[in-house]
């Protein structure tokens, strides 16, 4: 699969089988695993002053998104994305 780029839009299905469009806000690789930070397209296009919800997803070898399963991994990914965003500001 091609590398996922910031700005790409994907449709994901949640646990209730509802489809949602998400936009990639950032992408990083940690310890050989690719992760993306995504937000709902609807929230991003809303242009309101409110913060948007950001979700972190793991990308598997086939290029599919999956949830981060444990707190330790989530904390590591969250910290890495936070550092990335701080550097860009």
What does this structure look like?
This protein has 89 residues and is of the alpha+beta class. 26% of the residues lie in helices and 38% in strands. The chain is built from two helices and five strands; from the N terminus they run βββαββα. It has helices at residues 41-45, 71-88, and strands at residues 9-13, 19-30, 33-40, 54-59, 65-67. A five-stranded antiparallel sheet has the order 1-2-3-4-5. A hairpin with a 5-residue loop joins strand 4 (54-59) and strand 5. The radius of gyration is 13 Å and the shape is globular. The model has no long low-confidence stretch (mean pLDDT 87).
Key terms:
89 residues, alpha+beta, 2 helices, DUF1292 domain-containing protein, UPF0473
Structure summary:
The protein is an alpha+beta fold and 89 residues long.
CA-CA gap between termini: 30 Å
What is the global morphology?
globular
Percent range for β-strand residues: 35-45%
Assign a percent range to the helix content.
25-40%
Compute the CA-based radius of gyration: 13 Å
Number of strands: 5
Strand order of the largest sheet: 1-2-3-4-5
